[in-house]
Amino acid sequence: MLRHNYLSSIRLALTLFDFPVYTSGFRSAISCLDGQPLRATPSTSRPFSKTCVPTMKASVSPHMKSRCPEYPGSQIKRFPVSDAQVDWSHSVQGYEPVHFTHPAVAKKPAWADPEIGSFCPQFNTVDGAVDRRSFEGRYKVEDGKPLNPHGRTGLSGRGLLGRWGPNHAADPIVTRWKVDAQGEKIHHLVSKKPILQFVSIKRKDCGEWAIPGGMVDPGEQISLTLQREFSEEALNSLAVPPSERENIRQRINRLFQSGGFQVFEGYVDDPRNTDNAWMETVAINFHDENGNCVSELPLQAGDDAGQVQWVDVDSSFLLYASHSHLLQMVVTERNAHW
Q1: CA distance 118 to 106
Q2: Whether the Cβ atoms of residue 187 and residue 194 lie closer than 8 Å to each other
Q3: Which residues pair with 219 in a beta bridge?
Q4: How far apart are CA 49 and CA 137, in angstroms?
Q5: Distance, C-alpha 276 to centroid of its chain
Q6: Which residues make beta-bridge pairs with 268?
Q7: CB–CB of 101/158 below 8 Å?
Q8: Under 8 Å between Cβ of 140 and 134
């Protein structure tokens, strides 16, 4: 789902422009990732309809990316953890996870928690402006520190994550139908189903295509996060001239107020996860059915994206982390080609 550490005030001013990994098949133990630490988490209000297809589970086997041998953005090696040793209920003699908190997090920026001991966070509840609840339910707290609900990762501390416990993100999946010159839906030659397109960004850090998304600011509603992230990453709203903002605002509002359906919410298997801090996300699909909301807006990559474009949804198109699984849920909901 991630890098806006110094843009909070700008973001709030642009709110009017107002999303780990869940894997059933694993491509690599180490996924490309953001080299910047993360901020987290809000009280969430989710006025979105639920998908009619079964909710996607976070993983069908012990988290894999959360146990990548080398922690991202560092040369820190994780303590080896086998599949059988992941669950906290299984005793592991000699388990000594490496403790690591990224220097940028340890400097106590506003978006990150202090070290445990210097403050007393209220876990499993809304702690001031920070929502420390998990979609996984109540998580255990041991020696004053929260335990990853999906088990051991071979590394303690927070790593690149700002919050102890869950770090919440939001992923807007913006789609439209692929149409011909006459505006008629184009159907796939094999499946005979209409082809969906979605707005995809090419990440600068690893060169992989992904769904635009980012962290939820403290006290921010999910609906605003989704609009903000899409505006900043896909439309580069931070650099839009004032003369164009009203047109963008109207089109974005029309799409995001039309109602979306919730594709997924929960824990994400992410290389940045640790024993004491982990990623969770909410993914919502916003569909431009008639192609008159954002389809005609010129896409422009923001600071965190190298490129941005409409991409055909297809099972052969490789995406960052397991974003393809999110898109497959959208395809099922809309009876489109996969």
Answers
A1: 12
A2: yes
A3: none
A4: 21
A5: 18
A6: 279
A7: yes
A8: no
Please state, for a pLDDT cut of 70, what percent of the chain lies above it. 76
C-alpha–C-alpha distance, residues 87 and 153, integer Å: 10
198 against 45, higher pLDDT: 198
Tens digit of each residue's pLDDT (9 = 90 or more) over 179-214? 999 999 999 999 999 999 998 988 776 678 888 888
Q: Are 150 and 58 in contact (CB under 8 A)?
A: yes
Where do the DSSP E strands lie in 70-154?
98-101, 126-127, 130-131, 141-142, 145-146
**Alpha carbons 93 and 25: distance in angstroms, whole number:** 30
Q: Which ranges of the chain would DSSP assign to H, the alpha helix? A: 8-13, 103-106, 222-234, 242-256, 323-334
Name the one residue in this structure whose structure tokens are 């004053």.
144
Phi and psi dihedrals of 240, rounded to 5?
-75, 130
Instruction: Look up residue 131 and give its two tokens.
Output: 């929502």
| Measured distance CA(39)–CA(109) in Å, rounded | 9
CA-wise closest residue to 264 among 283, 279, 286, 278: 283
Decide if 310 contacts 199 (C-beta within 8 A): yes
Average pLDDT score over residue span 148-171: 96
Model pTM above 0.85: no
Of 216, 213, 282, 285, the residue nearest 255 (C-alpha)? 285
